[in-house]
Specification:
Elements: E1 12-19, E2 26-36, E3 39-49, H1 55-62, H2 65-71, H3 76-82, H4 90-106, E4 107-115, E5 121-128, E6 131-134, E7 138-139, H5 146-165, H6 171-176
Antiparallel strand pairs: 1-2, 1-4, 2-3, 4-5, 5-6, 5-7
Length: 185
């Protein structure tokens, strides 16, 4: 898509995004509104965009890692050990933190999809040791994490918009000018 076809960002809504495992393609679903006099129309736009995404998009997706890890219980052990009832020794606290870090290294967030008509919830899509994992529906209205989750999704939406419509590419492409299209192997 060239720049003149870009919808205004406030008229564009991302439905889902997923970065392919090799990191060489972004799959997305979105809709944008156009006005024709007093009528408005939703135009679906989806597909695969075969250019390596900018690192900011990958980093923004990884911002959802803690929510996905928590939803799968990977952070529960650390929370129990840190609780006052457990009365962990400094050595136990240290090992608990090491274990949590090892779990977190194995989790990779690849995308998310909005859920519901009002876009007030998402499902996070990820991988753990190469196996697909998907969170339960996570609501922005949850008082424990809703605000930070909504902020993370807003950042990702902006990164996807800049990638799709404003040409924000991976650093390699910026340095070497590659517009090469990657093929699935």
């Amino acid at each position: 898509m060239n720049l003149q076809e870009a919808p205004r960002q406030d008229n564009w809504n991302l439905s889902s995004v997923k970065v392919k495992r090799a990191g060489d393609c972004v799959e997305f679903k979105s809709k944008y509104m156009i006005m024709d006099g007093n009528e408005s129309y939703e135009i679906p736009k989806d597909g695969k965009y075969p250019i390596v995404p900018h690192g900011d998009l990958i980093d923004a997706l990884q911002g959802l890692k803690n929510r996905l890890a928590s939803d799968y219980g990977y952070t529960l052990f650390d929370a129990i050990v840190k609780s006052d009832k457990f009365q962990a020794s400094p050595e136990q606290l240290k090992h608990s933190q090491i274990l949590l870090q090892e779990f977190m290294k194995k989790i990779h967030v690849v995308g998310y999809a909005y859920s519901g008509k009002n876009r007030r919830a998402i499902k996070v899509i990820g991988e753990f040791e190469g196996k697909a994992i998907v969170s339960a529906i996570l609501s922005f209205d949850n008082s424990d994490y809703g605000d930070s989750l909504e902020e993370a999704c807003s950042r990702i939406d902006t990164e996807v918009y800049e990638y799709l419509f404003l040409g924000k590419k991976a650093q390699y492409d910026l340095m070497f000018g590659s517009d090469e299209v990657f093929e699935d192997e």
